[in-house]
Structure formats: structure tokens, C-alpha cells
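Quick start: read one record
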Amino acid sequence: MVSKLRSLRRVAGITALVYSVYALLVVYLVPPIARHLTETRLGALLHRPVTVKGIYLNPFTLCLKVRGLEIWEPDGETLFAGVQRVDVNLDLVLSALQRGLVVSAVTVDGPHAVVVRRPDASFNFSDLVKAPATAAPAPAPAADSTPSSRPPRFSVANIQINDGWFFFRDEVVNARQRLTGVHLAVPAVSSLPTRVEVYVRPAFHAWFDGQAIAVDSQTKPFAASQESSADIRLHNLDLTAFTPYMPEPRNFDLSSGWLDLDLAFRYLQTPNRKPSVSVSGDIGLRDVRVTGRDGHPMAGVAALQLSLLPTDLMQKEVHLSRVLCRAPFYRLSRDARGTLLLPRVGAEDAAATAPSASPGTPAPAATPTGPPAPPPVTADIDEIRVEQGRLEFDDAAVSPAFQTALDFHAEVKGLTTRPERPMQISFETATESAETVAGIYAITLFPQLTVTGTTTVTDVRLPKYMPYLNKTLACAIDRGTLCVKVDHALALPVGASAEVKISDLDLGVSDFCLTAGADHAPVVTFQELTVTDLMADLDARDVVVGAFATHGGQVQVQRFKDGSLNLQKLVQAGPAPAPGAAPTTAAAPAPAATPWTITVRDAAVAQWAVALEDQQPGTPVHLAVSDITVNIKDLTTRADQHGTLALGLRLNDSAALAVTGGFSVQPLAVDLNVKLTDLALKDFHGYVADHLKLLISDGAVETELKVVVSQAADAAFTGTVDGAFVLRRFASVDQVHSEDFVKCRELALRGIHVDLKPLAVRLEEVALSGLDTAITVKPDGSVNLLSVLGVASAPAADATHPATPPPPAPASTSGGGSAFPLDIAMIRVDGCGVIFTDEGVTPHYCFTLGELAGTVTALSLSKPTPAEINLSARFDGHAPFSFHATAANLGPQMTLTAATVLKDFDLSPATPYSGRYVGYAVQRGKLNFDLQYSLDKRRLVAEHKVLIDHFAFGQKIDSPDATKLPVRLAVALLKDRKGQISLDVPVRGSLDDPEFSVLRLVLKVLRDLVAKAATAPFAMLGALVGGGEELSFVEFGAGSSDLDGAAAKKLELLAKALVERPELQVETGGTVDPVSDREALVRQAVLRQIKARRLADLVKAGKPAVSVDEVSLSAAERDHCLLAIYRETLAPPPPAKRSKTLPKEPTPAEIEQQLIARTTVTDTEVNLLAGQRAARVHEFLTTTGKIEPERVFVVDTAPPAAGGAPAAPVRQVRLSLR
């Protein structure tokens, strides 16, 4: 027993000794060793200094405590990471009982770390995560090894992390974030079989940059289902803290924004089902504001709330019960280049500023290859609401810049990507100018996009949008309001073009005014314009308008001097092609598209007016069209459809136009009745004034027509026009002389019938009555008729050079008449008269052709039917005149027989003509003639029998226009013993002969009877005294006004002729050659300078002074004088230092050239030479030639044009007679 006790004591002692040693070792030896190993081994592993304040291990409870573990950066001064306290309690008893590791508690206090991203984008821990240079490959598992499906047995309870903090500093973007107050509590984590189905409920709380984060979760990490869930709560997260991490470059900043999260995540995975991940909860954004770099707001939202219903993300499904967007704001801007200024990350899109592709090169269209792919995610949103939204838009790409703001709200119900499920969308917007846009739509996204709905636009202020029209329009919309309501449908079938249908469109524009010009004058105004019940099928290219109506409108139409209309200038002209631009290659013609079909059931225009101003005529024309009323029924481009038209208007409050009838567009056809009454011609005077200097003072037109016209398949028009035209009370005034010109009681065209194909015009009667007119020759020789017509009066032909007749018309090869098919059954003239007055002679000459009457029957320009013409009248009421003719085949091959008879025409009133042109008065005499003409096959046979009875000249009349021909002798030779002069002048010839002229032949006979007129005066003088045409000028030498021998002889001949013809006067005008005369004058000036130097030498030598021109020079004296001039005026000054060698002097010839180069002769001096030459000729004629000075005149001639010499010398005095 004692031994047993002794043994027990020994064992107990040994045990106590061992335990004591164990305790001593654990308490005193292990902590220092562990601390040392931690600092060395961990520091070596991390390549960083590691410090530990203390490590404590309870040998009895196996409680491990670590205090003050700090890891420093390699510099040993900057903190990297650490922990203030770590306590781990191991439960040996339970570990033994559970056959696994059981930790009763784990407490971590003050964990912390500092993470730094350096400027090179590396982190301060990057060296710890780099892969080693060479890594040993992982050993392959044995073929028969089977990994255990069970996790190791362990249990950790009471896990606590307290007061952790983490600091992140980003030196790249200069940003800092702090996660403080980190607390994580995990009650227990266990893989023990008894604890597998027990939820692990970690709880995490922290503060991120001052905002609380809370995550409550539960999980079964070691259960078969791995069921887990997490509730995340994050409120008031300042999103601006993440602004530095937004990529650069960007054009915006996040100035404010707060994020709220309240989400629940669920994860479940069972052996027989695919894993599922669901999320639900709320996501909210508050007070989000995005600003540009200039500080101006770009976008924002007061609140955006997304409510998620539980959805399985693994099944690619998203289901939101509600999306609420409150007070969204967006500012859309476009700069002057036309680029939209959107929030942008990265470099500016090149496509935004790159030039657009050529309009002639269409972009390749995408060709669908099959049914559309299903959406990648099935999304369902039960409701979307947008409240108090605002969109601001400013556009600097237009001028002036455009700005507007839209307040809007919208609602979407049933938004889904599931096929065949429509969603409902409604919205309303209102601008700052009270414009509204509203819409209600049903939209299906898949399998094809379909949209049906109604859009309503009200109170759109059209002037507001003028900046977008300024590049197109050269006018301005001053006022106007637009309203539109449209029901429409859109479908985008797969593999087919879009289908757009408009089922009901109502459009209205009210109080519209379009202005143009610097004065903003109204061009188009109307009170109202409406289009109702419009239906359109864009795919079928069919438009039907139920009704079109407008009233209270006015249009100002102007035609300017260049012929352009103000309406044309309402549109801006297109840019001119760049010079040298290559021509555009014409693209292949596109296949003909189906033409549009347009139908207007009812169109009404009421109370419209058009003010027309035509400035192209010299006298502007002003027309006022008022009371325009138009009613059209069934206007359509459909084939073989007919409509009706009723048009009425008034012109200048006097004329009335009415058009009624039917029509069709395809093919074009009209059946109209047109009636025009009381159209005042004086309103159209401006159109006549430019062509005729005529003032229409009165006159009215009436017409009534029946127009039946249609267009055939070959685009030619067929049909007829029937009716009548009457002009009444026509009166006009000669504007040149302010005298009555033409008056007409009535001109009527009755029985008008026009066939368009083939063209034929027939008039039953043309009746002219009460025509009175006057033909007056004014003192200046003009004829009022020609002046009115704007034709200059041709000078009268003299006996020597009769007027050249116009070339004959070319002969026609056909036997018919004119190609124009005009037939007039009867032309009737009655009660007409003409008064002829010549005010160019004194006293005035006047006769009257009155009682003019006659008829023309069967006049045809297209048929060989002979027309008969009968006219009768009386001269001055007593001398009968008659004309009778028969004409057929009117035209180049006309056949004509005509006879004109005049009897007892008194010639004594013609004294003003004889006194002026012959120099004698007509004492008495009567004129009788009988003229017969016959034209056949373009050969004319004419007989002119003229009898002048008892003709005698009276007293002599001094007239500057009187001829010098011996007219009295000619009359005495022609007059027979009865006192009669009888002339018979037959004329025969062909009209195809360009030299044939009846007037020329008659004048030739009369000319030969009197005398041959003079032709060229100098030629005549030359034939008498010699010299010919050379007497017309006298030539001179270069730079000289002296007459040589040839010139003096020519002037002697001229003086002799002038002495013989005292009525002649001569004019002399000198000319110069600007090149040769100038050169000669320069040389003369240099020579005078040389002579002046020689004269100075002679005077010094005591010689008497003489004129410079009288100084004579030898060659040696000339060279001596040139050298003296050079040394005095041209030589350079002597050098400052005396040189052994003197500079070489130029030769006399070189000195003379220098003097010539320095001598200037002005244009005035050259032109003075011309006057000196003319004066020399004047002097010769008046002294040597003995011509009276008053008969010789010196005239000034224009100097030659500067810039070059004429082609031939003009050193002359030119002579002319007057």
C-alpha cells in the first residue's frame, strides 16, 4: 500500500513537474518564440516589416491572444495593415467529444488596412499578388483517389469583428474612401452533422464615408441545399465620391446623387434542380444632378425608385412592380457645328463631326436572314410613371439660336418583352409657350414592333420654329398656330418594309401670316386652313382627304424687274457648285415606284384674295383679285374618275370671272364654261407700255367660251373651244405726244371655233366699226405710229441711194397657203377714218382719209380659196380712192390681182414739201394715178400710170433742205403743151430676185430724169482738181508741224476747189502718234540742251548771243558739249580720299542716251503738237489759199488711247467738209 502511494506520489510529482515545465514553457518561452517567428517569417513572406506587441497563450484554457500586430510598408514608417487584438478560445473537451475542432469564441478588435493605388496604377499590395517566375505544376490526383464529399469537422462560435477600419487612397485620381466602424457578428459556423441544417446568421454593419451599411444574412453553407439569403440595406450613399473613378476624358461631372438600397438576395441549389438566384427589394436614386464641365446642368432626377419583385436571375428574368421617376431633367444641346452635346465618355465621336456620306451613295440596307432573335432577358415592368419631367433644348446650329422647354409626364403599363403582349403608353407634354403634345398608344415589341394610337398636338406656335426654316426659307412666319390630331398605326414586319397607316388625321392652321423682305411685308395670310378625315396608307401609296377648307386668305404676288417672282424668293437658293468640281456620275435609274394616289373628296376656298404687282413692265401693273371662291368635288388622281369645279372671282372690282364644269386628272380632261365680263383693259396698260408707247384710257372685254379639252395617251391635247369675244369702247392716247391715238367703238369676233387636233381656227365674223386714228409726222421727223410702236423712223431715201429693200421671203415648195389654219368667213369694216398730219414742214400738211368701209370675204390662210377685198374711201372728203383685189394661196406662193385708183388729189396743199425739199412752192396741180398689180408664181407685173395736171411751181422758198438739182428745167422738159406730166412706169420682176424692188426701180426712173446725185464730196473734188481721196488728210513728219512739199501741193489743190464752191466749209483736226512723236520730241529736247551748252561757251568767248535753234554744231563740238553736260550734271561726286586712278568717263554716245533716258515729254506736250499741226493747215488755207477764215474751222480730236502705239502712223491733219 505504501509502495502504491509512493508510486502515486512519484507519478504525481512527475506529472506536476511536466505540467509545470509545460506551463513555464507555454507562458514564458512560446510567446517570445511565436512573436519572433511571426515578425521574421511573416515579414519575410510579405517583404515588409512586421511588429507584434505581444502574443499570449493560456496553457490551461488554450486561449490565444495577439496584441498590436502591425504590418508596415517597406519604408518601415507607413502603415500597411494590422489588428489591435485577436482572441481565440479553443474548447478541448468539445473538440474531443465532437472529434473535430471546436472554437468557443473568436474576437477580432480593430482590424485595419491601408490600400493605395499609386500613380502608375499599381497597388501597394501588387507585389504580393504577382505570380512567381516559375511555378511548380500541381500534382495530378491519383487515378484511384476519390475526394471526400464531406467538409472537415469543425465548429466556430461567437465570431466577433469589432471597430474595424479600412482606408483606400487613390493617387491616380486623388480620391479617398473610408470604411469605418466595421462590425461583423457570426453566432456560429459549423460543419458538424448536428449543426449542418442550422442557419448561420452573419450580421455586418459599417460606415462607408459616413453612411451606414447593413447586411443581415443567413446561410447553410454545409447543407445539401446550400440555401442562403442576404438583406442589404444601404442609405444615403453619396455617389459623387465615385466621380473620380469615372473614365476620362468625359464632358460631364456628377455634382450630386444619393443611392438607397434595400435588397434581398436568395440562393438555393438542390441536387435535382438548377441553382436559382432571386433578388427583390427597392433601389432608389435621389437628387441626381449631372453637370457639364462648364457648370451648366445637363441631366438629373429628383427621385428614381425601382421596386423589384422576386425574380430568378438564373432564368434571365426581371420583374419590376413599379418604376417611379419623379422630376427628371435633361438638357439637350447642339453646338454651332450641329453636334449634339450629350454626356460622353471617351474621345469625341468622329462620326459626329465627320462629313456625311454622299447623298448619292445609299447606305447598304440590312437584310434580315430569319426570324428575330428572342430578347436576351425576359423583362416585365407592371407600371412606369414619370412625373414632373422637364426637357430643355437649345440649338446653336440654327440662326438665331433656338431654345425651348417641355414639361411632361408619362405612364407605361404592362411593359414586357414577352411576345404578343401589348403595353399601354400615355404621355402629355407642354412647352413654355403653352404648346401641348399628348399621345395614347398600344405597343407590342415582339415578335415585331407594332404601334397603334392617337397623337394630339395643339397650339403649336409656328414662328417659334423659324430658326429651323431659315436655311430653307427666305421669309418669316410672323404668326400662326398649328393643331394636329392623328390616329396612326405602324408595323415593322420581319423581312419586309415598314407599314404605316393613318386612319384619321385632322390638321388645322389658324391666324397664319408669312412675311418677307426687310419691311416684313405680309406675303401669305389666312384666317384658317383645315384638313379633316385624312387617311393614308404609305405602303399602298394612297392618300384620301375627306375635306380641305380655307377662308379669309390673301396672297401678295410680285414679279420683279428680272422676271422672278417674290414667291420664288421665299425659298433660299441652293449653294452654287464649287468651281472646278467634278461632275457627279449619274446613278443608275431606280425602278419606277408605284405612283401615289391622292383623293380630295371636298375642297372649299372662300373669301380669298390675291394682290398682284408686276414690276417687270416699265409701268408696274397692279391687279386685285378678290372674292375668290372655289368648290371642288372628288378631285383624284385615280384613272377615269371625274370631279366638278366651280370657280368665281372679281378682278379690280369691275370684272367678274366664272368657271363651272367637270374635269378629270387621269387622263387630264376638262369640260368647262368660262364667262368673263367687264374686263377693263386700262388695268393692263403696263404690259402694253413697254412695247407700245400707248396709254389705254378705256375699253372693256367680254368673252364667253365653252372649253372641252382632253389629253390623249400620246400627251397631245384634243378638243374644241367655242365662243365669242367683244372689245367695246376702246380708247388710247399717244404717250409720246399726249394726243388721242386710236378709238374704236367695237371689235367683235363672233362664231369662234378652235379645233386643237388637228389645229384649226375658224371665225364666222370679224366686225370693226367706229375706228378713228391719226398718223402724224412730228417736227423731228418721227411718226407717231412708229413712236407708239417703239420703232425708230427710218431716214428718207434719196434719189441716189434708195432704201435697200428687205430680202425677199424664201419661196415655198408647196402649193398651199400658210401652215397656220385660220379661216375667216367675213371681215367687215364700217365708219372708219384716218387723219394724216405732217408737222415736220411749215406750214403743217394734213389730209383726211374718211368714209373708210369695205369687206373681206372668204379669207383663208390654209386653203386656196380666193379672198375678195373691197375698200373705198375719200381723201379730204372729195378725192375718191378705191382698192379692189383678189388673192388666193395666201403665203409665199400667193396669186394676186389688185387695182388702186385715185382721182383729183389736189397738190397745192403739198407746198410745205416742195418748198422744203425743192425750194419752190406748188402753185397748182392735181394728181391722178391708176396702179395695176399682178402677181403669179412670184412674178410681179406692175403698171404705174401717173398723171399730173397743170403742175406749176410758185415762188422760190429758201430752205436749208432744198435740193440743188435743176428741178425747174426738168419740169419744163417733162411738161407737154397741155400742161400735163404723164408718167408710165412699168415694173416687172421676180420676188425671188434679191435685187428686185418696185420702189427702187421707180425712184431710179425719177432720178435719171432729174440728175445724178453726188456721192463722196472729196472724190468729186479730186476728180475736178486732182488728188482724189488723198485730199481728206495731210501728213507730217515725226515731232514736226511743218508742211513738206507734198502736203503744200495737196492744200493748194484743196484751196482751189474751195474757192470754186463758196458754200463749202472745211474742218481741220490734228492727230499725233504717241510713240514716234514722243521719241522725236525727246530727241529735240536733248538737242536743244546740247545747243544751249554750246551757246554758253560762245557767249563766254565773247560771241554775240543768238537763238538756241540757230546754233550749229560740229561733231567735235557736240562731243565736247556732251562731256561738259556730263561733268556738270551727271558725273558722280569725287571720292573722299584722293585716288591714284580716276574713274573712267562714258562716251558721248552713252552720255546722250543717259540724257534721253532722263528727259520726259508729257502727254500734254505731245497732244499740243496735234493742235499746232491743225493750226498750220488753217494758216495755209487762209493765207496762201485765200480762203475766208470763217469757212475754215479747227476742231479738237481725241488723243490716242494710252498704253500703246497705233497700228499705222497717224501724224496727220484730217479734213472734212460741211
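The longest helix spans residues 2-46.
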